[in-house]
C-alpha cells in the first residue's frame, strides 16, 4: 500500500483512516518508526497540524506511541501484559466463579475441537500422564492435588490448540479456577471427573471432534450445575 495524496474532504478523517489502515495492513509493523510529521504532511499533501491530530488519535487508540525526541512508533502489543488485566477485573466483579466457569464452558468446548485437530502424540501422552496423576491423587485421598491435576488437564487441552490467546487466557484464569475446583470435585466425586477426562482422551486419540466436544460440553455443564448448587447451599447456611 502506498501513501496517496488526500482529497480535501474531511481531510483529518482521511489522514487518520489512511495511517490506521497502513498499520492494520502491516505496512508499518510493530516497533516500526513512522515518518516525521513534516514528511507525512508532504506525502499526504496536508498540513502538519492535520497529521499531528491524526497521530494523536492513533495514540489514543493505542496503535502508536510517541517518544520524546525520537518520534512516533507503531506500538508493540504484549498480549500477556494486556490480558493480565483480566485478573483484577474478574475478582472485582464479585461474581468471579460464575463468570469464569461460564467462560470456560465456551472456550474449552472449542479448545478441545482444536486439540483434536492439532494435538500431537506427545500431547496425548502428556494428557495420559496427567490423568494417571489424578488417579494417584484419588488413591491418596488428596482432593487438593486432584483438583490441581484437573486444572492442569484443561490447561494442557488449551496448549494443544496452539493458539496463544487461548493459552494465555487459560493461564491467567487458572488461579481463579483452582480456588473452586476442589469444592466441585468434592461434590461431583473423583470418579465422574476421571470418567469425563478419560473419555476426552479417547476421543482425541480417535480424532473424534464431535465426540470430544460433546463430552467436554457435558462435563462443563455439570461443573456449572455443581457451582450453582454449592452457591445455593452456602446461601442457605448463611441465612440460618
UniProtKB/TrEMBL annotation:
> One Pfam family from the UniProt entry?
GntR
Q: Tell me the keywords, alphabetical order.
A: DNA-binding, Transcription, Transcription regulation
The HTH gntR-type domain sits at: 9-77
Tell me the InterPro entries matching this sequence: GntR_C, TF_FadR/GntR_C, Tscrpt_reg_HTH_GntR, WH-like_DNA-bd_sf, WH_DNA-bd_sf
Alphabetically, the GO molecular function entries are:
DNA binding; DNA-binding transcription factor activity
Q: Give the SMART domains listed for this entry.
A: FCD (SM00895), HTH_GNTR (SM00345)
Q: Which domain of life is it from?
A: Bacteria
What CDD domains would the database entry show?
Answer: WHTH_GntR
**SUPFAM superfamilies named among the record's database cross-references:** GntR ligand-binding domain-like, Winged helix' DNA-binding domain
Keyword Cytoplasm attached: no
Q: Is Transcription regulation tagged as a keyword?
A: yes
Q: Quote the PANTHER family the UniProt record gives.
A: TRANSCRIPTIONAL REGULATOR, GNTR FAMILY (PTHR43537), UXU OPERON TRANSCRIPTIONAL REGULATOR (PTHR43537:SF5)
The name of this protein is L-lactate utilization operon repressor
Source organism lineage?
A: Bacteria, Bacillati, Bacillota, Clostridia, Lachnospirales
State the encoding gene: lutR_2
Amino acid at each position: 500500500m502506498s501513501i496517496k495524496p488526500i482529497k480535501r474532504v474531511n481531510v483529518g478523517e482521511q489522514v487518520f483512516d489512511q495511517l490506521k489502515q497502513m498499520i492494520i495492513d502491516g505496512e508499518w509493523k510493530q516497533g516500526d518508526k513512522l515518518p516525521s510529521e513534516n514528511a507525512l504532511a508532504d506525502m499526504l499533501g496536508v498540513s502538519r497540524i492535520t497529521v499531528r491530530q491524526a497521530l494523536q488519535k492513533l495514540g489514543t487508540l493505542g496503535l502508536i506511541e510517541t517518544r520524546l525526541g525520537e518520534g512516533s512508533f507503531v506500538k508493540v502489543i504484549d498480549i500477556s501484559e494486556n490480558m493480565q488485566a483480566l485478573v483484577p477485573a474478574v475478582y472485582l466483579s464479585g461474581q468471579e466463579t460464575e463468570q469464569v466457569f461460564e467462560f470456560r464452558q465456551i472456550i474449552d468446548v472449542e479448545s478441545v475441537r482444536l486439540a483434536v485437530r492439532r494435538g500431537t502424540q506427545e500431547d496425548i501422552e502428556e494428557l495420559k500422564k496427567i490423568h494417571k496423576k489424578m488417579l494417584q491423587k484419588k488413591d491418596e485421598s488428596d482432593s487438593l492435588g486432584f483438583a490441581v491435576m484437573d486444572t492442569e488437564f484443561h490447561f494442557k487441552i488449551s496448549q494443544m490448540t496452539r493458539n496463544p490467546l487461548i493459552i494465555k487466557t487459560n493461564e491467567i484464569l487458572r488461579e481463579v479456577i483452582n480456588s473452586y475446583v476442589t469444592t466441585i470435585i468434592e461434590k461431583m466425586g473423583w470418579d465422574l471427573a476421571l470418567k469425563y477426562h478419560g473419555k476426552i482422551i479417547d476421543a482425541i486419540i480417535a480424532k473424534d471432534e464431535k465426540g470430544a466436544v460433546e463430552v467436554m460440553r457435558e462435563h462443563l455443564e455439570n461443573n456449572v450445575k455443581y457451582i450453582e448448587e454449592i452457591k445455593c447451599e452456602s446461601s442457605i447456611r448463611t441465612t440460618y
